[in-house]
Protein backbone atom coordinates (compact mmCIF):
# COMPACT_ATOMS: atom_id res chain seq x y z
CA UNK A 1 0.00 0.00 0.00
CA UNK A 2 2.94 2.36 0.76
CA UNK A 3 3.90 2.24 -2.93
CA UNK A 4 0.56 3.62 -4.15
CA UNK A 5 0.27 7.28 -5.11
CA UNK A 6 -2.71 9.04 -3.45
CA UNK A 7 -4.54 9.17 -6.80
CA UNK A 8 -3.99 5.43 -7.28
CA UNK A 9 -5.08 4.73 -3.73
CA UNK A 10 -8.37 6.54 -4.33
CA UNK A 11 -8.93 4.63 -7.58
CA UNK A 12 -8.15 1.27 -5.95
CA UNK A 13 -10.58 1.99 -3.11
CA UNK A 14 -13.34 2.83 -5.61
CA UNK A 15 -12.69 -0.39 -7.54
CA UNK A 16 -12.67 -2.40 -4.30
CA UNK A 17 -16.03 -0.91 -3.22
CA UNK A 18 -17.63 -1.57 -6.63
CA UNK A 19 -16.33 -5.15 -6.74
CA UNK A 20 -17.53 -5.85 -3.20
CA UNK A 21 -21.08 -4.53 -3.83
CA UNK A 22 -21.25 -6.22 -7.24
CA UNK A 23 -20.53 -9.55 -5.56
CA UNK A 24 -23.29 -9.09 -2.98
CA UNK A 25 -25.71 -7.82 -5.64
CA UNK A 26 -24.98 -10.80 -7.89
CA UNK A 27 -25.46 -13.18 -4.97
CA UNK A 28 -28.86 -11.66 -4.09
CA UNK A 29 -30.06 -11.68 -7.73
CA UNK A 30 -28.87 -15.28 -8.17
CA UNK A 31 -30.75 -16.41 -5.08
CA UNK A 32 -33.87 -14.54 -6.27
CA UNK A 33 -33.68 -16.17 -9.73
CA UNK A 34 -33.29 -19.61 -8.18
CA UNK A 35 -36.35 -19.00 -6.01
CA UNK A 36 -38.30 -17.88 -9.07
CA UNK A 37 -37.12 -20.84 -11.14
CA UNK A 38 -38.28 -23.28 -8.50
CA UNK A 39 -41.93 -22.29 -9.19
CA UNK A 40 -41.61 -22.61 -12.98
CA UNK A 41 -41.75 -25.61 -15.24
CA UNK A 42 -40.41 -26.52 -18.65
CA UNK A 43 -38.12 -24.29 -20.69
CA UNK A 44 -38.80 -21.25 -18.52
CA UNK A 45 -37.23 -22.98 -15.54
CA UNK A 46 -34.10 -23.85 -17.54
CA UNK A 47 -33.65 -20.26 -18.71
CA UNK A 48 -34.13 -18.85 -15.21
CA UNK A 49 -31.73 -21.36 -13.62
CA UNK A 50 -29.17 -20.64 -16.35
CA UNK A 51 -29.44 -16.89 -15.70
CA UNK A 52 -29.02 -17.55 -11.98
CA UNK A 53 -25.84 -19.57 -12.57
CA UNK A 54 -24.47 -16.88 -14.93
CA UNK A 55 -25.19 -14.16 -12.37
CA UNK A 56 -23.51 -16.25 -9.66
CA UNK A 57 -20.39 -16.62 -11.85
CA UNK A 58 -20.25 -12.84 -12.34
CA UNK A 59 -20.44 -12.44 -8.55
CA UNK A 60 -17.65 -15.00 -8.05
CA UNK A 61 -15.37 -13.03 -10.37
CA UNK A 62 -16.20 -9.77 -8.60
CA UNK A 63 -15.36 -11.41 -5.27
CA UNK A 64 -12.00 -12.56 -6.67
CA UNK A 65 -11.31 -9.01 -7.89
CA UNK A 66 -12.16 -7.61 -4.44
CA UNK A 67 -9.76 -10.05 -2.77
CA UNK A 68 -6.92 -9.04 -5.10
CA UNK A 69 -7.55 -5.37 -4.41
CA UNK A 70 -7.67 -6.07 -0.66
CA UNK A 71 -4.23 -7.70 -0.86
CA UNK A 72 -2.96 -4.65 -2.74
CA UNK A 73 -4.44 -2.24 -0.22
CA UNK A 74 -3.61 -4.18 2.97
CA UNK A 75 -5.48 -2.70 5.93
CA UNK A 76 -8.65 -1.30 4.34
CA UNK A 77 -9.43 1.00 7.27
CA UNK A 78 -5.91 2.45 7.20
CA UNK A 79 -6.10 2.83 3.42
CA UNK A 80 -9.38 4.72 3.79
CA UNK A 81 -7.83 7.04 6.37
CA UNK A 82 -4.86 7.74 4.11
CA UNK A 83 -7.20 8.39 1.21
CA UNK A 84 -9.20 10.85 3.31
CA UNK A 85 -5.99 12.57 4.50
CA UNK A 86 -4.83 12.97 0.90
CA UNK A 87 -8.23 14.38 -0.04
CA UNK A 88 -8.13 16.76 2.96
CA UNK A 89 -4.58 17.97 2.21
CA UNK A 90 -5.54 18.66 -1.38
CA UNK A 91 -8.46 20.84 -0.33
CA UNK A 92 -7.03 22.46 2.82
CA UNK A 93 -3.46 23.25 1.76
CA UNK A 94 -3.43 26.86 3.08
CA UNK A 95 -4.75 25.70 6.48
CA UNK A 96 -2.12 22.93 6.65
CA UNK A 97 0.64 25.43 5.97
CA UNK A 98 -0.71 27.74 8.67
CA UNK A 99 -0.75 24.88 11.21
CA UNK A 100 2.86 24.04 10.38
CA UNK A 101 3.93 27.62 10.97
CA UNK A 102 2.11 27.89 14.27
CA UNK A 103 3.56 24.57 15.47
CA UNK A 104 7.19 25.40 14.61
CA UNK A 105 9.84 24.85 17.30
CA UNK A 106 11.08 27.98 19.06
CA UNK A 107 14.67 28.58 17.97
CA UNK A 108 15.47 30.31 21.29
CA UNK A 109 14.14 27.49 23.45
CA UNK A 110 16.45 26.27 26.23
CA UNK A 111 15.89 23.17 28.38
CA UNK A 112 15.24 23.70 32.08
CA UNK A 113 17.06 20.58 33.30
CA UNK A 114 20.33 21.30 31.48
CA UNK A 115 23.45 19.49 32.70
CA UNK A 116 26.62 21.57 32.29
CA UNK A 117 29.04 19.24 34.05
CA UNK A 118 28.49 15.60 33.04
CA UNK A 119 31.45 14.45 35.17
CA UNK A 120 29.87 15.88 38.32
CA UNK A 121 26.58 14.18 37.39
CA UNK A 122 28.31 10.81 36.81
CA UNK A 123 30.29 11.02 40.05
CA UNK A 124 27.19 11.91 42.06
CA UNK A 125 25.42 8.90 40.59
CA UNK A 126 28.45 6.71 41.41
CA UNK A 127 28.00 4.87 38.12
CA UNK A 128 29.99 3.80 35.07
CA UNK A 129 29.19 5.10 31.57
CA UNK A 130 27.52 3.42 28.59
CA UNK A 131 28.22 5.64 25.57
CA UNK A 132 25.93 5.31 22.56
CA UNK A 133 27.23 7.02 19.44
CA UNK A 134 28.14 6.50 15.80
CA UNK A 135 31.11 7.46 13.66
CA UNK A 136 31.74 11.21 13.78
CA UNK A 137 29.46 11.82 16.77
CA UNK A 138 32.34 12.91 19.02
CA UNK A 139 32.95 9.69 20.97
CA UNK A 140 36.70 10.29 21.08
CA UNK A 141 36.20 13.87 22.22
CA UNK A 142 33.86 12.84 25.02
CA UNK A 143 36.02 9.95 26.23
CA UNK A 144 39.13 12.16 26.26
CA UNK A 145 37.29 14.79 28.27
CA UNK A 146 35.84 12.26 30.70
CA UNK A 147 39.10 10.37 31.25
CA UNK A 148 40.99 13.61 31.90
CA UNK A 149 38.48 14.51 34.63
CA UNK A 150 37.96 11.09 36.21
CA UNK A 151 41.70 10.39 36.41
CA UNK A 152 43.66 7.16 36.61
CA UNK A 153 45.51 5.15 33.99
CA UNK A 154 43.52 5.10 30.74
CA UNK A 155 43.29 1.78 28.89
CA UNK A 156 41.41 1.30 25.61
CA UNK A 157 40.17 -1.94 24.06
CA UNK A 158 39.60 -1.19 20.38
CA UNK A 159 39.96 -3.81 17.63
CA UNK A 160 39.34 -1.28 14.83
CA UNK A 161 41.65 1.50 16.02
CA UNK A 162 43.42 3.38 13.23
CA UNK A 163 46.99 4.68 13.70
CA UNK A 164 45.72 8.16 14.52
CA UNK A 165 43.02 6.98 16.96
CA UNK A 166 43.65 7.47 20.68
CA UNK A 167 46.88 9.33 19.89
CA UNK A 168 46.63 11.25 23.16
CA UNK A 169 47.34 8.02 25.07
CA UNK A 170 50.41 5.93 25.71
CA UNK A 171 50.11 3.50 22.77
CA UNK A 172 50.88 0.43 24.89
CA UNK A 173 47.54 1.09 26.60
CA UNK A 174 45.63 0.86 23.29
CA UNK A 175 44.97 -2.88 23.06
CA UNK A 176 43.57 -4.90 20.15
CA UNK A 177 44.68 -3.01 17.03
CA UNK A 178 44.25 -4.89 13.72
CA UNK A 179 41.52 -7.10 15.16
CA UNK A 180 43.69 -8.67 17.83
CA UNK A 181 40.81 -9.99 19.94
CA UNK A 182 43.09 -12.48 21.66
CA UNK A 183 45.06 -9.61 23.19
CA UNK A 184 41.83 -7.93 24.33
CA UNK A 185 40.48 -11.15 25.82
CA UNK A 186 43.70 -11.81 27.71
CA UNK A 187 43.88 -8.24 29.00
CA UNK A 188 40.28 -8.33 30.17
CA UNK A 189 41.00 -11.60 31.96
CA UNK A 190 43.89 -9.90 33.76
CA UNK A 191 41.56 -7.01 34.66
CA UNK A 192 39.21 -9.46 36.36
CA UNK A 193 42.13 -10.93 38.32
CA UNK A 194 43.27 -7.41 39.25
CA UNK A 195 39.79 -6.62 40.53
CA UNK A 196 39.90 -9.67 42.79
CA UNK A 197 43.35 -8.61 44.05
CA UNK A 198 42.04 -5.14 44.84
CA UNK A 199 39.14 -6.65 46.80
CA UNK A 200 41.61 -8.54 48.98
CA UNK A 201 43.97 -5.57 49.38
CA UNK A 202 41.18 -3.22 50.39
CA UNK A 203 39.77 -5.81 52.74
CA UNK A 204 43.14 -6.09 54.51
CA UNK A 205 44.37 -2.50 54.44
CA UNK A 206 41.45 -0.24 53.52
CA UNK A 207 41.45 2.42 50.81
CA UNK A 208 45.10 3.31 51.43
CA UNK A 209 46.12 -0.16 50.25
CA UNK A 210 44.71 0.46 46.73
CA UNK A 211 45.79 4.12 46.39
CA UNK A 212 47.38 4.95 43.04
CA UNK A 213 45.85 1.99 41.23
CA UNK A 214 42.94 3.90 39.70
CA UNK A 215 42.08 2.96 36.12
CA UNK A 216 39.73 4.26 33.44
CA UNK A 217 38.98 1.46 30.96
CA UNK A 218 37.24 2.03 27.62
CA UNK A 219 35.61 -0.78 25.60
CA UNK A 220 35.06 0.38 21.99
CA UNK A 221 32.27 -1.26 19.92
CA UNK A 222 31.29 -3.48 22.80
CA UNK A 223 28.89 -5.76 20.87
CA UNK A 224 31.86 -6.95 18.78
CA UNK A 225 33.96 -7.51 21.90
CA UNK A 226 31.17 -9.62 23.41
CA UNK A 227 31.02 -11.79 20.29
CA UNK A 228 34.79 -12.28 19.99
CA UNK A 229 36.05 -12.22 23.58
CA UNK A 230 34.97 -14.75 26.19
CA UNK A 231 35.92 -12.41 29.04
CA UNK A 232 34.10 -9.31 27.69
CA UNK A 233 30.66 -9.95 29.21
CA UNK A 234 31.90 -10.95 32.70
CA UNK A 235 34.45 -8.09 32.53
CA UNK A 236 31.67 -5.56 32.10
CA UNK A 237 29.25 -7.14 34.57
CA UNK A 238 31.75 -7.60 37.42
CA UNK A 239 33.24 -4.13 37.02
CA UNK A 240 29.71 -2.69 36.80
CA UNK A 241 28.81 -4.29 40.14
CA UNK A 242 32.05 -3.72 42.07
CA UNK A 243 34.53 -1.65 40.06
CA UNK A 244 33.68 1.83 41.27
CA UNK A 245 34.41 0.91 44.87
CA UNK A 246 37.94 -0.07 43.87
CA UNK A 247 38.56 2.90 41.54
CA UNK A 248 38.14 0.78 38.39
CA UNK A 249 35.94 2.95 36.18
CA UNK A 250 34.65 1.61 32.84
CA UNK A 251 33.18 3.24 29.75
CA UNK A 252 31.53 0.88 27.25
CA UNK A 253 30.73 2.16 23.74
CA UNK A 254 28.00 0.76 21.45
CA UNK A 255 25.58 1.93 18.79
CA UNK A 256 22.45 0.76 20.59
CA UNK A 257 21.25 0.97 24.18
CA UNK A 258 19.92 -2.59 24.45
CA UNK A 259 21.28 -4.81 27.25
CA UNK A 260 22.31 -7.41 24.68
CA UNK A 261 24.76 -4.99 23.05
CA UNK A 262 26.61 -4.75 26.35
CA UNK A 263 26.68 -8.49 27.02
CA UNK A 264 23.86 -8.25 29.58
CA UNK A 265 21.26 -10.53 27.99
CA UNK A 266 18.18 -10.61 30.16
CA UNK A 267 19.75 -8.19 32.66
CA UNK A 268 18.63 -4.75 31.59
CA UNK A 269 18.42 -3.68 35.23
CA UNK A 270 22.23 -3.82 35.52
CA UNK A 271 22.60 -1.51 32.51
CA UNK A 272 20.28 1.12 33.96
CA UNK A 273 21.26 0.76 37.62
CA UNK A 274 25.06 0.68 37.19
CA UNK A 275 25.57 2.92 34.13
CA UNK A 276 24.84 6.47 33.10
CA UNK A 277 23.66 6.30 29.49
CA UNK A 278 25.17 9.01 27.29
CA UNK A 279 23.58 9.31 23.84
CA UNK A 280 25.45 11.31 21.21
CA UNK A 281 24.47 12.68 17.80
CA UNK A 282 21.56 11.07 15.98
CA UNK A 283 21.09 8.56 18.78
CA UNK A 284 20.32 11.38 21.22
CA UNK A 285 17.98 13.11 18.77
CA UNK A 286 16.12 9.87 18.00
CA UNK A 287 15.73 9.17 21.72
CA UNK A 288 14.35 12.66 22.33
CA UNK A 289 11.82 12.21 19.54
CA UNK A 290 10.72 8.58 20.04
CA UNK A 291 11.11 7.95 23.77
CA UNK A 292 10.87 11.37 25.39
CA UNK A 293 8.36 12.67 22.81
CA UNK A 294 10.01 16.10 22.90
CA UNK A 295 10.47 17.74 19.44
CA UNK A 296 11.85 20.93 21.02
CA UNK A 297 14.59 18.95 22.72
CA UNK A 298 15.32 17.15 19.46
CA UNK A 299 15.79 20.46 17.61
CA UNK A 300 17.87 21.89 20.45
CA UNK A 301 20.23 18.90 20.26
CA UNK A 302 20.48 19.22 16.49
CA UNK A 303 21.28 22.93 16.63
CA UNK A 304 24.18 22.37 19.04
CA UNK A 305 25.99 19.71 17.01
CA UNK A 306 28.52 17.61 18.91
CA UNK A 307 28.43 19.88 21.96
CA UNK A 308 24.91 18.80 22.86
CA UNK A 309 23.82 15.30 23.82
CA UNK A 310 21.75 13.41 26.38
CA UNK A 311 22.97 12.16 29.74
CA UNK A 312 20.36 9.63 30.82
CA UNK A 313 17.14 11.51 30.00
CA UNK A 314 18.56 14.99 30.57
CA UNK A 315 20.10 17.41 28.01
CA UNK A 316 23.78 18.24 28.37
CA UNK A 317 26.01 20.87 26.77
CA UNK A 318 29.78 20.38 26.99
CA UNK A 319 31.95 23.50 26.76
CA UNK A 320 35.38 22.59 25.35
CA UNK A 321 36.84 25.90 26.51
CA UNK A 322 36.82 24.60 30.11
CA UNK A 323 39.11 21.68 29.40
CA UNK A 324 41.96 21.72 31.88
CA UNK A 325 42.80 25.40 31.54
CA UNK A 326 42.82 26.03 35.29
CA UNK A 327 44.90 22.92 35.88
CA UNK A 328 47.50 24.11 33.35
CA UNK A 329 47.79 27.51 34.98
CA UNK A 330 48.18 25.95 38.44
CA UNK A 331 50.79 23.53 37.19
CA UNK A 332 52.98 26.19 35.59
CA UNK A 333 52.60 28.56 38.54
CA UNK A 334 53.38 25.91 41.16
CA UNK A 335 56.39 24.51 39.36
CA UNK A 336 57.75 27.81 38.13
CA UNK A 337 58.73 25.99 34.94
CA UNK A 338 58.67 27.54 31.50
CA UNK A 339 57.38 25.86 28.37
CA UNK A 340 60.77 24.48 27.30
CA UNK A 341 61.35 22.89 30.71
CA UNK A 342 57.93 21.21 30.64
CA UNK A 343 58.53 20.05 27.06
CA UNK A 344 61.88 18.50 27.97
CA UNK A 345 60.25 16.34 30.64
CA UNK A 346 57.20 15.35 28.53
CA UNK A 347 56.95 12.24 26.35
CA UNK A 348 55.48 13.06 22.96
CA UNK A 349 53.99 10.98 20.20
CA UNK A 350 54.69 11.59 16.50
CA UNK A 351 51.66 13.82 15.99
CA UNK A 352 52.47 16.07 18.92
CA UNK A 353 56.10 16.34 17.86
CA UNK A 354 55.12 17.41 14.33
CA UNK A 355 52.89 20.16 15.72
CA UNK A 356 55.64 21.38 18.03
CA UNK A 357 58.16 21.43 15.19
CA UNK A 358 55.78 23.59 13.16
CA UNK A 359 55.03 25.82 16.14
CA UNK A 360 58.72 26.43 16.87
CA UNK A 361 59.19 27.58 13.28
CA UNK A 362 56.14 29.89 13.52
CA UNK A 363 56.13 31.20 17.10
CA UNK A 364 52.99 33.04 18.15
CA UNK A 365 50.97 31.97 15.10
CA UNK A 366 47.66 30.25 15.88
CA UNK A 367 47.27 26.90 14.13
CA UNK A 368 43.74 25.66 13.38
CA UNK A 369 42.69 22.09 12.56
CA UNK A 370 42.07 22.96 8.90
CA UNK A 371 45.54 24.51 8.63
CA UNK A 372 47.14 21.35 10.01
CA UNK A 373 45.73 19.06 7.30
CA UNK A 374 46.85 21.51 4.58
CA UNK A 375 50.28 22.48 5.93
CA UNK A 376 51.48 19.26 7.59
CA UNK A 377 51.14 16.29 5.26
CA UNK A 378 51.52 13.84 8.13
CA UNK A 379 47.98 14.81 9.30
CA UNK A 380 46.33 14.39 5.90
CA UNK A 381 42.94 12.72 6.28
CA UNK A 382 42.75 13.08 10.07
CA UNK A 383 39.35 14.32 11.34
CA UNK A 384 39.45 17.93 12.63
CA UNK A 385 38.04 16.88 16.03
CA UNK A 386 40.98 14.53 16.56
CA UNK A 387 43.43 17.32 15.73
CA UNK A 388 41.73 19.62 18.25
CA UNK A 389 42.08 16.86 20.85
CA UNK A 390 45.85 16.88 20.25
CA UNK A 391 45.86 20.68 20.61
CA UNK A 392 44.15 20.36 23.96
CA UNK A 393 46.37 17.46 25.08
CA UNK A 394 49.47 19.58 24.47
CA UNK A 395 48.01 22.55 26.27
CA UNK A 396 46.95 20.36 29.20
CA UNK A 397 50.63 19.53 29.71
CA UNK A 398 51.68 23.15 29.47
CA UNK A 399 53.06 22.83 25.92
CA UNK A 400 51.73 25.79 23.93
CA UNK A 401 48.34 27.36 24.43
CA UNK A 402 44.87 26.91 23.00
CA UNK A 403 42.69 29.81 21.91
CA UNK A 404 38.91 30.09 21.35
CA UNK A 405 36.78 26.96 21.66
CA UNK A 406 34.71 24.33 19.91
CA UNK A 407 35.14 24.20 16.13
CA UNK A 408 37.30 27.35 16.29
CA UNK A 409 39.77 25.89 18.80
CA UNK A 410 43.37 26.61 17.81
CA UNK A 411 46.86 26.05 19.26
CA UNK A 412 50.01 28.15 19.22
CA UNK A 413 53.57 27.80 20.39
CA UNK A 414 54.15 30.54 22.96
Q: Ends: how far apart?
A: 66 Å
Q: Total strand count, please?
A: 11
Order of helices and strands: HHHHHEHEEHEHHEHEHHEEHHHEHHEE
Q: Could you please say which CATH topology of the largest domain applies here?
A: Rossmann fold
- Classify the beta-strand content into a percent band: 5-15%
Transmembrane segments: 21-38
InterPro entries: P-loop_NTPase (IPR027417)
Keywords: Membrane, Transmembrane, Transmembrane helix
SSE blueprint and pairings:
Layout: H1 6-38, H2 43-73, H3 76-91, H4 93-102, H5 118-125, E1 128-132, H6 139-150, E2 153-157, E3 174-175, H7 181-205, E4 215-219, H8 222-228, H9 232-242, E5 248-254, H10 268-274, E6 275-279, H11 281-290, H12 295-304, E7 308-311, E8 314-317, H13 325-335, H14 339-344, H15 350-361, E9 367-368, H16 369-375, H17 384-396, E10 401-403, E11 410-412
Helix pairs in contact: 1-2, 1-3, 7-9, 11-12, 16-17
Describe this structure in words.
The structure is a single chain. This protein is α/β, with parallel strands linked by helices. It folds into three domains: 97 residues; 201 residues, Rossmann fold; 88 residues, Winged helix-like DNA-binding domain superfamily/Winged helix DNA-binding domain (Arc Repressor Mutant, subunit A). The chain contains 17 helices and eleven strands. An eight-stranded mixed beta sheet has the order 3-2-4-5-1-6-7-8, sandwiched between helices. Strands 9-11-10 form a three-stranded antiparallel beta sheet. The longest helix has 33 residues. It is elongated, with a radius of gyration of 34 Å. It starts with 5 loop residues before the first helix and ends with a strand.
Amino acid sequence: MSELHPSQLHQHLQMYTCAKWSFWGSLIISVGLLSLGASKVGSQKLWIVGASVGTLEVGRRQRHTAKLLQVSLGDIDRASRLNFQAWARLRTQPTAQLALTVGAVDANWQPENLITDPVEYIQKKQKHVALIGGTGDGKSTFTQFLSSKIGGRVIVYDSDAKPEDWNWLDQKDVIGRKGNFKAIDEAMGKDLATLEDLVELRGDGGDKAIAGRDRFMIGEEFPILVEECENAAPWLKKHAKRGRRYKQFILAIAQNDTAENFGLQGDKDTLYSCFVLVRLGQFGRDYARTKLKDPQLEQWLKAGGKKRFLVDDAPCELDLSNWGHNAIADRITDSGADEKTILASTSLNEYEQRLINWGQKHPGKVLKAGDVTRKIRFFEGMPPDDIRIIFQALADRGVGQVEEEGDRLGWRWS
